[in-house]
Protein backbone atom coordinates (compact mmCIF):
# COMPACT_ATOMS: atom_id res chain seq x y z
CA UNK A 1 0.00 0.00 0.00
CA UNK A 2 1.26 3.50 -0.83
CA UNK A 3 -0.26 6.47 0.98
CA UNK A 4 -0.17 10.19 0.39
CA UNK A 5 -1.13 12.68 3.09
CA UNK A 6 -2.52 15.86 1.52
CA UNK A 7 -1.89 18.71 3.95
CA UNK A 8 1.16 19.28 6.15
CA UNK A 9 -0.48 21.01 9.11
CA UNK A 10 -0.13 19.55 12.57
CA UNK A 11 -2.43 16.57 12.08
CA UNK A 12 -1.39 15.79 8.51
CA UNK A 13 2.25 15.77 9.57
CA UNK A 14 1.61 13.69 12.71
CA UNK A 15 -0.45 11.13 10.78
CA UNK A 16 2.22 10.90 8.05
CA UNK A 17 4.69 10.04 10.83
CA UNK A 18 2.26 7.38 12.14
CA UNK A 19 1.97 5.83 8.67
CA UNK A 20 5.75 5.66 8.20
CA UNK A 21 6.18 4.26 11.72
CA UNK A 22 3.55 1.64 10.78
CA UNK A 23 5.73 0.62 7.81
CA UNK A 24 3.50 2.20 5.15
CA UNK A 25 5.20 3.86 2.18
CA UNK A 26 4.08 7.49 2.60
CA UNK A 27 4.55 10.91 1.00
CA UNK A 28 3.41 14.18 2.54
CA UNK A 29 2.08 17.02 0.39
CA UNK A 30 2.61 20.58 1.60
CA UNK A 31 1.20 23.65 -0.14
CA UNK A 32 4.39 25.65 0.31
CA UNK A 33 7.53 24.36 -1.49
CA UNK A 34 9.83 25.70 1.26
CA UNK A 35 7.93 23.71 3.92
CA UNK A 36 8.10 20.53 1.79
CA UNK A 37 11.85 21.07 1.35
CA UNK A 38 12.41 21.54 5.09
CA UNK A 39 10.40 18.41 5.97
CA UNK A 40 12.40 16.28 3.52
CA UNK A 41 15.80 17.82 4.32
CA UNK A 42 15.62 18.50 8.08
CA UNK A 43 12.95 15.95 9.12
CA UNK A 44 11.06 18.62 11.03
CA UNK A 45 7.95 20.71 10.54
CA UNK A 46 8.86 23.62 12.77
CA UNK A 47 5.77 25.63 11.74
CA UNK A 48 3.27 23.10 13.12
CA UNK A 49 5.16 20.55 15.27
CA UNK A 50 8.29 22.28 16.60
CA UNK A 51 10.79 19.98 18.33
CA UNK A 52 9.41 16.78 16.74
CA UNK A 53 11.83 14.71 14.65
CA UNK A 54 10.09 13.13 11.69
CA UNK A 55 11.16 9.69 10.40
CA UNK A 56 13.95 9.51 7.77
CA UNK A 57 11.54 7.58 5.55
CA UNK A 58 9.14 10.53 5.26
CA UNK A 59 9.58 12.85 2.31
CA UNK A 60 7.42 15.78 1.32
CA UNK A 61 6.65 17.55 -1.94
CA UNK A 62 4.58 20.53 -3.00
CA UNK A 63 3.79 18.92 -6.36
CA UNK A 64 0.33 17.34 -6.33
CA UNK A 65 1.18 15.12 -9.32
CA UNK A 66 4.36 13.84 -7.70
CA UNK A 67 2.66 13.29 -4.34
CA UNK A 68 -0.25 11.35 -5.77
CA UNK A 69 1.67 9.27 -8.30
CA UNK A 70 0.98 5.59 -7.53
CA UNK A 71 -0.92 6.35 -4.32
CA UNK A 72 -3.58 3.79 -3.34
CA UNK A 73 -4.65 5.76 -0.28
CA UNK A 74 -5.24 9.52 -0.25
CA UNK A 75 -5.44 10.96 3.26
CA UNK A 76 -7.24 14.33 3.22
CA UNK A 77 -5.67 16.57 5.89
CA UNK A 78 -6.84 20.06 4.96
CA UNK A 79 -9.47 22.03 6.90
CA UNK A 80 -13.13 21.14 6.32
CA UNK A 81 -14.19 24.33 4.61
CA UNK A 82 -11.38 24.12 2.02
CA UNK A 83 -11.62 20.37 1.33
CA UNK A 84 -13.99 20.74 -1.63
CA UNK A 85 -11.79 23.31 -3.41
CA UNK A 86 -8.62 21.32 -2.74
CA UNK A 87 -10.08 18.02 -3.85
CA UNK A 88 -11.34 19.61 -7.06
CA UNK A 89 -7.75 20.70 -7.82
CA UNK A 90 -6.40 17.22 -7.00
CA UNK A 91 -8.94 15.36 -9.18
CA UNK A 92 -6.83 15.13 -12.38
CA UNK A 93 -4.10 13.32 -10.41
CA UNK A 94 -6.28 10.77 -8.60
CA UNK A 95 -6.12 7.07 -9.49
CA UNK A 96 -9.30 5.17 -10.47
CA UNK A 97 -9.57 2.98 -7.36
CA UNK A 98 -8.26 5.37 -4.76
CA UNK A 99 -9.22 4.81 -1.12
CA UNK A 100 -9.86 8.10 0.67
CA UNK A 101 -9.32 8.74 4.37
CA UNK A 102 -10.79 11.94 5.77
CA UNK A 103 -9.10 13.49 8.80
CA UNK A 104 -11.07 16.73 8.87
CA UNK A 105 -13.55 17.31 11.68
CA UNK A 106 -16.29 19.59 10.43
CA UNK A 107 -19.50 20.00 8.46
CA UNK A 108 -19.40 22.04 5.24
CA UNK A 109 -21.17 25.35 5.90
CA UNK A 110 -22.47 25.84 2.34
CA UNK A 111 -24.05 22.36 1.98
CA UNK A 112 -24.29 20.86 5.52
CA UNK A 113 -22.47 17.80 4.14
CA UNK A 114 -20.07 15.69 6.21
CA UNK A 115 -16.52 15.42 4.87
CA UNK A 116 -16.90 11.88 3.45
CA UNK A 117 -19.99 13.14 1.62
CA UNK A 118 -17.99 16.03 0.16
CA UNK A 119 -15.29 13.58 -0.97
CA UNK A 120 -17.91 11.34 -2.59
CA UNK A 121 -19.63 14.27 -4.31
CA UNK A 122 -16.43 15.75 -5.74
CA UNK A 123 -14.59 12.52 -6.64
CA UNK A 124 -17.57 10.36 -7.58
CA UNK A 125 -16.14 7.58 -5.39
CA UNK A 126 -18.72 5.32 -3.72
CA UNK A 127 -19.02 5.41 0.08
CA UNK A 128 -17.29 2.06 0.49
CA UNK A 129 -14.02 3.62 -0.76
CA UNK A 130 -14.14 6.51 1.73
CA UNK A 131 -13.15 6.25 5.39
CA UNK A 132 -13.08 8.70 8.27
CA UNK A 133 -10.35 8.56 10.90
CA UNK A 134 -11.35 10.18 14.19
CA UNK A 135 -10.64 9.88 17.89
CA UNK A 136 -8.92 11.53 20.87
CA UNK A 137 -5.86 12.45 18.83
CA UNK A 138 -4.24 15.77 19.71
CA UNK A 139 -1.58 15.95 17.02
CA UNK A 140 1.38 16.86 19.20
CA UNK A 141 0.83 13.97 21.64
CA UNK A 142 0.55 11.47 18.76
CA UNK A 143 3.69 12.93 17.13
CA UNK A 144 5.51 12.43 20.44
CA UNK A 145 4.51 8.75 20.35
CA UNK A 146 2.25 8.92 23.40
CA UNK A 147 -0.16 5.95 23.43
CA UNK A 148 -3.62 6.60 22.01
CA UNK A 149 -6.37 4.92 20.04
CA UNK A 150 -8.55 6.05 17.17
CA UNK A 151 -11.40 4.86 14.97
CA UNK A 152 -11.19 4.14 11.26
CA UNK A 153 -14.76 4.10 10.00
CA UNK A 154 -15.71 2.77 6.59
CA UNK A 155 -18.83 1.11 5.19
CA UNK A 156 -16.53 -1.56 3.70
CA UNK A 157 -15.20 -3.54 6.66
CA UNK A 158 -12.39 -5.20 4.67
CA UNK A 159 -11.13 -1.81 3.57
CA UNK A 160 -11.29 -0.53 7.16
CA UNK A 161 -9.20 -3.53 8.25
CA UNK A 162 -6.58 -2.84 5.54
CA UNK A 163 -6.39 0.76 6.73
CA UNK A 164 -6.16 -0.42 10.34
CA UNK A 165 -2.96 -2.33 9.36
CA UNK A 166 -1.61 0.67 7.49
CA UNK A 167 -2.01 3.02 10.50
CA UNK A 168 -1.23 0.67 13.41
CA UNK A 169 1.95 1.32 15.38
CA UNK A 170 3.20 0.51 18.88
CA UNK A 171 1.72 3.80 20.13
CA UNK A 172 -1.30 4.31 17.84
CA UNK A 173 -4.12 1.76 17.96
CA UNK A 174 -6.91 2.09 15.37
CA UNK A 175 -10.25 0.33 15.88
CA UNK A 176 -12.55 -0.28 12.93
CA UNK A 177 -16.20 0.79 12.78
CA UNK A 178 -18.78 0.87 9.99
CA UNK A 179 -20.61 3.88 11.47
CA UNK A 180 -19.06 6.67 9.42
CA UNK A 181 -21.86 9.10 10.29
CA UNK A 182 -21.36 8.65 14.04
CA UNK A 183 -17.61 9.19 13.82
CA UNK A 184 -17.97 12.33 11.72
CA UNK A 185 -20.74 13.88 13.82
CA UNK A 186 -18.76 13.15 16.98
CA UNK A 187 -15.68 14.87 15.53
CA UNK A 188 -17.54 17.92 14.25
CA UNK A 189 -19.65 18.60 17.35
CA UNK A 190 -16.84 18.14 19.87
CA UNK A 191 -15.02 21.13 18.36
CA UNK A 192 -18.05 23.31 19.10
CA UNK A 193 -18.33 21.97 22.65
CA UNK A 194 -14.57 22.52 23.15
CA UNK A 195 -15.12 26.19 22.27
CA UNK A 196 -17.75 26.33 25.03
CA UNK A 197 -15.37 24.65 27.52
CA UNK A 198 -12.65 27.12 26.58
CA UNK A 199 -15.03 30.03 27.13
CA UNK A 200 -15.93 28.68 30.58
CA UNK A 201 -12.31 28.21 31.58
CA UNK A 202 -11.43 31.67 30.20
CA UNK A 203 -14.08 33.19 32.43
CA UNK A 204 -12.50 31.35 35.38
CA UNK A 205 -15.02 28.55 35.95
CA UNK A 206 -13.70 25.24 37.28
CA UNK A 207 -14.16 21.52 36.81
CA UNK A 208 -17.88 21.29 37.68
CA UNK A 209 -18.72 23.66 34.87
CA UNK A 210 -16.41 21.83 32.49
CA UNK A 211 -17.91 18.42 33.34
CA UNK A 212 -21.40 19.87 32.92
CA UNK A 213 -20.59 21.25 29.47
CA UNK A 214 -18.88 18.03 28.37
CA UNK A 215 -21.79 15.87 29.55
CA UNK A 216 -24.54 18.09 28.16
CA UNK A 217 -22.41 18.47 25.01
CA UNK A 218 -22.43 14.70 24.68
CA UNK A 219 -26.23 14.75 25.03
CA UNK A 220 -26.39 17.22 22.10
CA UNK A 221 -24.00 15.09 20.07
CA UNK A 222 -26.09 11.98 20.65
CA UNK A 223 -29.36 13.74 19.80
CA UNK A 224 -27.99 15.07 16.53
CA UNK A 225 -26.12 11.86 15.71
CA UNK A 226 -29.16 9.65 16.19
CA UNK A 227 -31.30 12.05 14.13
CA UNK A 228 -28.92 11.85 11.15
CA UNK A 229 -28.49 8.08 11.35
CA UNK A 230 -25.54 7.43 13.68
CA UNK A 231 -25.32 4.65 16.23
CA UNK A 232 -25.41 5.64 19.87
CA UNK A 233 -22.51 3.23 20.69
CA UNK A 234 -20.20 5.20 18.39
CA UNK A 235 -20.85 8.34 20.37
CA UNK A 236 -20.06 6.46 23.58
CA UNK A 237 -16.76 5.43 21.95
CA UNK A 238 -13.41 6.96 21.01
CA UNK A 239 -14.74 9.20 18.23
CA UNK A 240 -17.51 10.48 20.53
CA UNK A 241 -16.92 10.83 24.23
CA UNK A 242 -13.20 10.00 23.85
CA UNK A 243 -12.47 12.90 21.54
CA UNK A 244 -14.87 15.18 23.41
CA UNK A 245 -13.05 14.67 26.72
CA UNK A 246 -9.56 15.01 25.18
CA UNK A 247 -10.35 18.18 23.27
CA UNK A 248 -12.43 19.85 25.99
CA UNK A 249 -9.75 19.22 28.62
CA UNK A 250 -6.51 19.93 26.79
CA UNK A 251 -4.71 23.26 26.47
CA UNK A 252 -3.30 21.80 23.21
CA UNK A 253 -6.75 22.05 21.60
CA UNK A 254 -7.02 25.01 19.22
CA UNK A 255 -10.81 25.10 19.68
CA UNK A 256 -10.60 25.14 23.47
CA UNK A 257 -7.84 27.78 23.32
CA UNK A 258 -9.88 29.94 20.93
CA UNK A 259 -12.84 29.75 23.33
CA UNK A 260 -10.59 30.59 26.29
CA UNK A 261 -9.48 33.80 24.58
CA UNK A 262 -13.13 34.78 24.10
CA UNK A 263 -13.89 33.92 27.74
CA UNK A 264 -11.01 36.16 28.81
CA UNK A 265 -12.62 39.02 26.89
CA UNK A 266 -10.77 38.91 23.55
CA UNK A 267 -12.63 39.87 20.38
CA UNK A 268 -13.15 37.30 17.62
CA UNK A 269 -10.37 38.99 15.64
CA UNK A 270 -7.97 38.84 18.60
CA UNK A 271 -8.81 35.16 19.19
CA UNK A 272 -8.31 34.49 15.47
CA UNK A 273 -4.94 36.26 15.45
CA UNK A 274 -3.82 34.16 18.43
CA UNK A 275 -4.26 30.91 16.46
CA UNK A 276 -1.23 31.82 14.28
CA UNK A 277 -2.91 30.44 11.17
CA UNK A 278 -3.97 27.13 12.73
CA UNK A 279 -7.54 26.06 12.23
CA UNK A 280 -10.17 26.08 15.02
CA UNK A 281 -12.82 24.19 13.07
CA UNK A 282 -15.65 24.76 15.55
CA UNK A 283 -15.75 28.50 14.80
CA UNK A 284 -17.19 27.76 11.35
CA UNK A 285 -18.78 24.41 12.12
CA UNK A 286 -20.97 25.85 14.88
CA UNK A 287 -22.93 27.46 12.03
CA UNK A 288 -23.33 24.26 10.01
CA UNK A 289 -23.93 22.02 13.03
CA UNK A 290 -26.62 24.41 14.22
CA UNK A 291 -28.21 24.47 10.76
CA UNK A 292 -28.11 20.66 10.63
CA UNK A 293 -29.80 20.57 14.04
CA UNK A 294 -32.50 22.96 12.77
CA UNK A 295 -33.01 20.81 9.69
CA UNK A 296 -33.58 17.69 11.85
CA UNK A 297 -35.45 19.61 14.56
CA UNK A 298 -32.87 18.76 17.22
CA UNK A 299 -32.34 20.97 20.26
CA UNK A 300 -28.66 21.97 20.75
CA UNK A 301 -28.53 24.84 23.26
CA UNK A 302 -24.75 24.79 23.80
CA UNK A 303 -24.09 24.82 20.07
CA UNK A 304 -26.60 27.61 19.70
CA UNK A 305 -24.90 29.64 22.43
CA UNK A 306 -21.43 29.13 20.90
CA UNK A 307 -22.81 30.21 17.53
CA UNK A 308 -24.29 33.36 19.02
CA UNK A 309 -21.04 34.27 20.80
CA UNK A 310 -18.95 33.67 17.67
CA UNK A 311 -21.28 35.16 15.09
CA UNK A 312 -23.95 37.35 16.70
CA UNK A 313 -22.00 39.31 19.27
CA UNK A 314 -23.49 37.64 22.37
CA UNK A 315 -21.16 38.00 25.36
CA UNK A 316 -19.97 34.87 27.16
CA UNK A 317 -21.64 36.15 30.36
CA UNK A 318 -24.99 36.53 28.57
CA UNK A 319 -24.59 33.09 27.01
CA UNK A 320 -24.13 31.58 30.49
CA UNK A 321 -27.22 33.39 31.84
CA UNK A 322 -29.31 32.33 28.90
CA UNK A 323 -28.23 28.66 29.19
CA UNK A 324 -28.95 28.53 32.91
CA UNK A 325 -32.22 30.42 32.46
CA UNK A 326 -33.69 27.76 30.19
CA UNK A 327 -36.86 25.99 31.30
CA UNK A 328 -36.27 23.13 33.78
CA UNK A 329 -36.53 19.63 32.29
CA UNK A 330 -35.70 15.97 32.93
CA UNK A 331 -32.10 14.91 32.23
CA UNK A 332 -33.07 12.35 29.61
CA UNK A 333 -35.59 13.31 26.93
CA UNK A 334 -36.14 12.63 23.23
N1 LIG B 1 -4.33 19.10 15.00
C1 LIG B 1 -4.96 18.13 15.60
O1 LIG B 1 -4.64 17.79 16.75
C2 LIG B 1 -6.05 17.40 14.91
C3 LIG B 1 -6.71 17.95 13.83
N2 LIG B 1 -7.73 17.29 13.23
C4 LIG B 1 -8.41 17.84 12.07
O2 LIG B 1 -7.54 17.76 10.96
C5 LIG B 1 -7.87 18.78 10.02
C6 LIG B 1 -6.60 19.47 9.57
O3 LIG B 1 -6.15 20.18 10.69
P1 LIG B 1 -4.67 20.44 11.15
O4 LIG B 1 -3.65 19.68 10.43
O5 LIG B 1 -4.67 20.30 12.61
O6 LIG B 1 -4.67 21.98 10.83
P2 LIG B 1 -3.52 23.03 10.84
O7 LIG B 1 -4.16 24.31 11.13
O8 LIG B 1 -2.40 22.57 11.70
O9 LIG B 1 -3.05 22.99 9.32
C7 LIG B 1 -3.94 23.06 8.25
C8 LIG B 1 -3.22 22.63 7.00
O10 LIG B 1 -4.09 22.90 5.90
C9 LIG B 1 -3.49 23.87 5.09
N3 LIG B 1 -4.52 24.80 4.67
C10 LIG B 1 -5.10 25.77 5.41
N4 LIG B 1 -6.01 26.41 4.64
C11 LIG B 1 -5.97 25.82 3.45
C12 LIG B 1 -6.63 26.04 2.24
N5 LIG B 1 -7.55 26.98 2.10
N6 LIG B 1 -6.32 25.24 1.21
C13 LIG B 1 -5.38 24.27 1.34
N7 LIG B 1 -4.73 24.03 2.46
C14 LIG B 1 -5.03 24.79 3.49
C15 LIG B 1 -2.43 24.56 5.90
O11 LIG B 1 -1.43 25.06 5.06
C16 LIG B 1 -1.95 23.40 6.74
O12 LIG B 1 -1.08 22.58 6.01
C17 LIG B 1 -8.89 19.69 10.71
O13 LIG B 1 -10.18 19.38 10.26
C18 LIG B 1 -8.77 19.31 12.18
O14 LIG B 1 -10.01 19.48 12.87
C19 LIG B 1 -8.10 16.05 13.63
C20 LIG B 1 -7.46 15.44 14.67
C21 LIG B 1 -6.40 16.06 15.39
O1 LIG C 1 -9.33 16.95 16.98
C1 LIG C 1 -8.48 17.15 17.82
C2 LIG C 1 -8.14 16.15 18.84
O2 LIG C 1 -8.72 14.90 18.60
C3 LIG C 1 -7.78 18.44 17.85
O3 LIG C 1 -8.57 19.43 18.38
P1 LIG C 1 -8.30 20.97 18.01
O4 LIG C 1 -8.58 21.10 16.55
O5 LIG C 1 -9.22 21.71 18.89
O6 LIG C 1 -6.85 21.22 18.34
UniProtKB/TrEMBL annotation:
Pathway stated in the Swiss-Prot or TrEMBL entry: Membrane lipid metabolism; glycerophospholipid metabolism
InterPro entries: 6-PGluconate_DH-like_C_sf, 6PGD_dom2, G3P_DH_NAD-dep, G3P_DH_NAD-dep_C, G3P_DH_NAD-dep_N, NAD(P)-bd_dom_sf
Cytoplasm as UniProt keyword: yes
Enzyme Commission designation: 1.1.1.94
Major subcellular site: cytoplasm
Enzyme kind, highest EC tier: oxidoreductase
Signal peptide from the UniProt entry: none
Keywords: Cytoplasm, Lipid biosynthesis, Lipid metabolism, NAD, NADP, Nucleotide-binding, Oxidoreductase, Phospholipid biosynthesis, Phospholipid metabolism
Subcellular localization: Cytoplasm
One Pfam family matching this protein: NAD_Gly3P_dh_N
GO molecular function terms attached to this record: glycerol-3-phosphate dehydrogenase [NAD(P)+] activity
Annotated active site: 190 (proton acceptor)
Catalytic activity line of the entry: sn-glycerol 3-phosphate + NADP(+) = dihydroxyacetone phosphate + NADPH + H(+); sn-glycerol 3-phosphate + NAD(+) = dihydroxyacetone phosphate + NADH + H(+)
Boundaries of every Glycerol-3-phosphate dehydrogenase NAD-dependent C-terminal domain copy: 179-320
Domain Glycerol-3-phosphate dehydrogenase NAD-dependent N-terminal: 4-159
Binding site for sn-glycerol 3-phosphate: 105, 135, 190, 243, 253-255
PROSITE patterns: NAD_G3PDH
Record's keyword annotation contains Hydrolase: no
Binding of NADPH, residues: 10-11, 31-32, 48, 105, 139, 254, 279, 281
NCBIfam families the UniProt entry points to: PRK00094.1-2 (NF000940), PRK00094.1-4 (NF000942)
General function of this protein: Catalyzes the reduction of the glycolytic intermediate dihydroxyacetone phosphate (DHAP) to sn-glycerol 3-phosphate (G3P), the key precursor for phospholipid synthesis.
PANTHER family reported for this sequence: GLYCEROL-3-PHOSPHATE DEHYDROGENASE, GLYCEROL-3-PHOSPHATE DEHYDROGENASE [NAD(+)] 2, CHLOROPLASTIC
Family listed: Belongs to the NAD-dependent glycerol-3-phosphate dehydrogenase family.
Protein name: Glycerol-3-phosphate dehydrogenase [NAD(P)+]
Organism annotation: Gordonia sesuvii
Lineage: Bacteria, Bacillati, Actinomycetota, Actinomycetes, Mycobacteriales
Amino acid sequence: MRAVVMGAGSWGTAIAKVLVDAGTDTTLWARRPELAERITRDHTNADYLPGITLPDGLSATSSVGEAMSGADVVVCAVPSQSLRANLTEWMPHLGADTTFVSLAKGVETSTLLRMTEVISEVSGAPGDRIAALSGPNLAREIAEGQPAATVIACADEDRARDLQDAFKTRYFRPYTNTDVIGCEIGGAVKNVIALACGMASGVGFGQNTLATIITRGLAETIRLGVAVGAQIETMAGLAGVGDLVATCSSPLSRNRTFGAHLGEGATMQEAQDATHGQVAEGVKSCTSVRALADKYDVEMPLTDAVHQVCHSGLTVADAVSSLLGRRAKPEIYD
